[in-house]
């Protein structure tokens, strides 16, 4: 049965694709130094939108989903799982730039354990709700505040994704929020708004100076993605420009990140907390949180992790976190296995085009993708990675 998939943001359709100046292809990593072109661009933050790219994928029908979820014994070819911890940040901001948008003031609706239509009988339970509930600014507390909204340009149009800090000046997001898969074309003019809430940017607006993706994604290597949607390496790192010698992570902190199955049971199952700004929810003006079981698919799904989620376009690039939240002070018990807090193990990549099917996917974080991208970015911008 033919089914149709879609990126959650999703990757933008390139009209009149041209190669970007400032692109550097160095082995496994391709980077794009933004340069002066940013200064000539105007991002329409109030009208930024998520563009959908619809792709019919006959090979990804219900039986394929079922096979990917319950598995046939194969597992991701990972080495030893590991993670690097994050940081809380000072929480004291001196920046006060705002986005000219209307504040959202209506009361939230919270419903636990939602379900979409079953995919060949499979349901992944989840809960999606606002972070800022009942007018309380939880988004300004760590770890929420280390996530935010990402604006950027493609041609004359402004678009939006989600992203999160993994170093004091380093963002992680989806590669399809950075470049057009296989077209050797980067987007441009990225700006990050940590903890965006309604019309306010409580921790400022931060420009990008460099973006990094895997060369296999940039060139569209044949085994990298299934029809450009379900990919091995839909992962990108963006280096932000400092302001007055400081990076956003100094204030808001940053998440840790894990690779090669950190936090998964037998590399197959984990619990995921997803953050993002889907434009279908509160017009994309408020951060949303989703909690779900995460199940890693097999090779037919490029070892992507699947979760249940109500998020849609605009959530792409948002973090998938294990061990989310603030640790308690324990007595009479201990922390469990793989217990580092607030570790990102993926970012939102794709979902079904039919909103009945509440499932989204994420490329696995591996030492080969997130590890390589962070290493290359930090080599060039060591101050952005300083702890």
Essential attributes:
387 residues; mainly beta; Thrombin, subunit H; twelve-stranded mixed sheet; six-stranded antiparallel β-barrel; globular; disordered N terminus
Topology readout:
Blueprint: E1 3-7, E2 23-26, E3 29-33, E4 54-57, H1 62-70, E5 82-84, E6 126-130, E7 147-154, E8 157-167, E9 170-173, E10 179-180, E11 185-186, E12 188-194, E13 206-214, H2 215-219, E14 225-226, E15 230-231, E16 236-240, H3 248-252, E17 256-259, E18 269-276, E19 288-296, E20 305-308, E21 319-322, E22 343-347, E23 350-352, E24 359-362, H4 367-380, H5 382-385
Parallel strand pairs: 17-22
Antiparallel strand pairs: 1-4, 1-23, 2-3, 3-13, 5-17, 6-19, 7-8, 7-12, 8-9, 9-16, 10-11, 12-13, 13-16, 14-15, 18-19, 18-21, 19-20, 20-24, 21-22, 23-24
Give an account of the 3D structure:
With 387 residues, the chain is mainly beta. It has a single domain, classed as Thrombin, subunit H, CATH 2.40.10. The chain has 5 helices and 24 strands. Strands 1, 4, 5, 6, 17, 18, 19, 20, 21, 22, 23 and 24 form a 12-stranded mixed beta sheet that branches. It is globular and about 55 Å long.
How much is the radius of gyration in Å? Answer: 19 Å
What is the CATH first-level class name? Answer: Mainly Beta
Structural class designation: mainly beta
**Low-confidence stretches at least 5 residues in length (pLDDT < 50)?**
1-18, 51-62, 72-78, 95-111
Into how many domains do the coordinates divide?
1
Q: What's the mean pLDDT score?
A: 81
């Amino acid at each position: 049965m033919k089914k149709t998939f879609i990126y959650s943001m999703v990757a933008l359709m390139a009209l009149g694709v041209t190669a970007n100046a400032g692109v550097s292809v160095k082995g496994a990593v391709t980077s794009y130094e933004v340069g002066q072109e940013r200064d000539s661009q105007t991002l329409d933050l109030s009208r930024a939108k998520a563009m959908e790219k619809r792709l019919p994928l006959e090979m990804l029908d219900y039986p394929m989903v079922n096979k990917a979820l319950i598995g046939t014994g194969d597992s991701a070819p990972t080495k030893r799982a590991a993670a690097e911890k994050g940081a809380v940040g000072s929480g004291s901001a001196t920046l006060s730039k705002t986005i000219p948008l209307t504040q959202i003031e209506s009361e939230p609706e919270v419903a636990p354990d939602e379900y979409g239509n079953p995919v060949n009988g499979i349901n992944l339970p989840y809960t999606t709700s606002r972070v800022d509930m009942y007018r309380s600014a939880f988004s300004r507390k760590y770890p929420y505040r280390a996530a935010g909204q990402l604006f950027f340009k493609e041609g004359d149009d402004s678009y939006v994704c989600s992203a999160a800090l993994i170093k004091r000046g380093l963002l992680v997001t989806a590669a399809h929020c950075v470049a057009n898969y296989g077209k050797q074309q980067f987007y441009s003019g990225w700006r990050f708004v940590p903890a965006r809430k309604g019309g306010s940017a409580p921790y400022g607006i931060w420009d990008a100076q460099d973006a990094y993706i895997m060369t296999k994604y940039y060139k569209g290597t044949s085994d990298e993605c299934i029809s450009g949607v379900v990919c091995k390496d839909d992962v990108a790192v963006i280096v932000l420009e400092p302001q007055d010698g400081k990076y956003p992570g100094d204030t808001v902190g940053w998440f840790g990140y894990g690779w090669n199955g950190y936090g998964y049971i037998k590399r197959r199952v984990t619990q995921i907390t997803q953050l993002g700004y889907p434009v279908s929810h509160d017009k994309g003006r408020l951060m949303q949180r989703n909690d779900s079981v995460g199940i890693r698919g097999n090779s037919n799904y490029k070892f992507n992790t699947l979760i249940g989620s109500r998020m849609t376009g605009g959530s792409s690039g948002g973090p998938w976190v294990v061990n989310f939240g603030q640790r308690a002070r324990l007595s009479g018990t201990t922390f469990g296995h793989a217990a580092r807090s607030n570790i990102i193990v993926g970012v939102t990549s794709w979902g079904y085009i039919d909103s009945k099917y509440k499932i989204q996917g994420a490329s696995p974080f591996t030492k080969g993708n997130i590890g390589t991208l962070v290493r290359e970015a930090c080599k060039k911008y060591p101050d952005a990675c300083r702890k």
